Give the backbone structure.
Amino acid sequence: MMLERQRILVVDDERINRKLLSELLEVHHDVVVAKSGEQALERMQADTGIDLILLDVMMPGMSGHDVLRRLKGNDATKDVPVIFITSLNSVDDEEIGLDLGAADYIIKPFHPGIVRLRVENHLRFVRQRKMLETLAGRDCLTEIDNRRRFEEVLEREWRRAGRGTGPMSLAILDVDYFKQYNDHYGHARGDQALKAVAKALSGGPHRSTDFVARYGGEEFVMLFPGTGAAGARELAETVRRAVETLCIPHEYSAIAPHLTVSIGGATSEDFQAPALALVEAADSMLYRAKAEGRNRVVWLA
Ligand SMILES: [Mg+2]
């Protein structure tokens, strides 16, 4: 099985250590480095895709212990495993580190083989945790529901609608020129943009019965049970405007100086057909929205 590359942050004030650890780990993973505790925290703020941190303890300015305390005090970073890598080699130091919440403790001078194996162990835990979240219906990045949950909700609502609860509308949303965004601004900024879009969607004008999920990549879905075409289209338009209003700069978009989305939608009143038919209808409208110039809502008339 092809494993997705995981991202490791190496924090050490000494260049030689950053170099050795990077060279050791970048064969199988993406490695980013920070020279100080302050820089490490900045990086964690900007990059939500870090899976594991190798953290030096003795650094001028903010120590590794301080960095870990700050990470644990922040909901966005408290679950990222941290391995201390340090020349403090007394048992007491190790206990302090683990007590602060470190996942592991490696003593310098380190043995490359051991570092690699310990890192792999922790990265495996991270993958398992993400898999559990996926099974539970959560999208790990945006923290809204995922495609799996969407498919469950769609089936359930489709059966309900079949018992006469009215029409059902579905919209699929795609971020315009997202590949160019990632290519030019990097995956960390790309992840942030997706989170912002997810927030705009889930904080939108919806009623409690409406449902939004990340469908995959830069695609999202919105389900409006009991809502006809005119009402749902209006809600989709509000979402499109809400993303525009975020004013996330996108210099590499061919249609606007900021990030925009295209939305395709469809409405069904016939629940004998499989629910998938509605998804396919919305998807073909999305295709049309793209073809007609993007940054718009196209609804199946
Ligand atoms: Mg040091």
Q: What stands out?
A: The chain has two domains: 7-129, 147-299. The CA atoms of residues 92 and 98 lie 10 Å apart. The first helix runs from residue 15 to 25. The longest strand covers residues 168-175.
